[in-house]
Design a protein that fits this description.
Number of strands: 4
Mean pLDDT: 84
Shape: elongated
Radius of gyration: 27 Å
Strand content: 15-25%
Low-confidence stretches: none
Distance between the termini: 81 Å
Number of helices: 8
């Protein structure tokens, strides 16, 4: 059989004669975490209109294509759900704010803001990215929190503080591996244990942290017990 005379040859000729083409239009832009590049990149959000082509010339509309995100660096196209993933810069800020909120919640639950707890909390917050955080700043924030909400120190985690914890942790949890979520919980546990065993209010606050991080209650209990057995 001569080349181009078989079924594959006929399909190839047909594809050259008839086909489809998508014309893309930019409808937005911004910065995102590109899974192809593995880092923060600029992007364009594109909508597409498909057309049948005859000999490469668009002739008939064929409907709209699903919108895509095009990376400005690698030019690859991704589904728009890729924008749900925070950029590296945004993720770092979310993590920093989460650790700061957990530290304040545990200090407020502790009731006394003892120096060992304040020192541990300040070191933890600085390690998360607030380089200039001091014990005095944290103590003032806890006192301001109590004055603003009418919260009683060493009381169980109230609705207001629980809401703050969920606001800080809920958006972060889906983007953290299990070890990352546990690490945030354990950072709070170390603050609580710095001045002695957990108080009931501290356990309550840490349970709220664990719930916001989607850690199962039994795993929260296990992790807190393990932290209490670990020498400081």
């Amino acid at each position: 059989m001569l080349p181009g005379r078989g079924r594959n040859g006929r399909a190839t000729r047909a594809a050259r004669i008839l086909g489809t083409r998508t014309a893309w239009s930019a409808v937005g832009d911004g910065e995102f975490f590109c899974p192809g590049c593995g880092g923060d990149r600029n992007y364009q959000r594109l909508t597409g209109h498909r057309r049948f082509t005859l000999l490469g010339v668009p002739v008939l509309p064929r409907g709209e294509s699903a919108p895509v995100v095009e990376c400005a660096a690698c030019r690859r196209h991704f589904g728009t759900d890729v924008l749900d993933h925070p950029t590296t810069t945004r993720f770092s800020a979310m993590l920093r704010d989460a650790v700061h909120t957990v530290a304040l919640a545990v200090l407020a639950a502790g009731g006394t803001c003892a120096r060992p707890s304040l020192e541990t909390a300040a070191a933890t917050v600085r390690a998360a990215g607030f380089d200039d955080c001091t014990e005095e700043q944290l103590s003032a924030l806890v006192e301001a929190l109590a004055a603003d909400t009418g919260r009683v120190f060493s009381a169980p985690c109230g609705a207001g503080l629980a809401i703050e914890l969920h606001e800080a942790l809920d958006p972060l949890a889906p983007h953290l591996a299990a070890t990352g979520r546990e690490s945030i919980l354990l950072s709070g546990a170390r603050i609580a244990l710095a001045d002695g065993p957990y108080t009931p209010a501290e356990r309550d606050a840490l349970a709220t942290v664990g719930a916001a991080l989607t850690i199962r209650a039994e795993d929260v209990t296990r992790l807190l017990a393990a932290a209490a057995r670990t020498p400081s």
